Amino acid sequence: MYIIEFVGRVFLSTLFLVEGIKKLFFFQEETKMYMEDYGVPEVLFFPSTFLEIIFPILIIIGFKTRLCASIMAIFTITVALIFHTNFDNQMQLITFLKDIAIAGGFLVIAANSSKSLSIDYFLNKKND
Q1: How confident is the model at residue 2 (pLDDT cuts 50, 70, 90)?
Q2: Which parts of the chain are beta strand (E)?
Q3: N or C: which end of the chain has fewer CB within 10 A?
Q4: Burial of 39 (0-12, 13-18, 19+ CB in 10 A)
Q5: Around 16, how many Cα atoms within 13 Å sit in the side-chain half-sphere?
Q6: What is the pTM of this model?
């Protein structure tokens, strides 16, 4: 069952990791303009993009997993509330619900300790 927990961490994190890398290397200007259209200052581009890259990597390798998953849940809910609340638009509603579902997945990770396929497990076992 530990492999399933690991694969779940990988699946959930990959979305953010890929999107963060795409934003950083290919869609910087477009993303900054999109953010500004919603009143989000450009200065938050790099912190939010690095969050989308670094925290998913930490979740995948299982380091400080509960903290990182909690932060990603908050980030995902925040993104949903800022960018996807035009419920007259069916795609916005679907995207909002997708983001809430993803945040739920992160909360499940945050509620459970990482199993044997994680750095957290090995550090905790070493301290026992």
Answers
A1: confident
A2: none
A3: C
A4: exposed
A5: 29
A6: 0.93
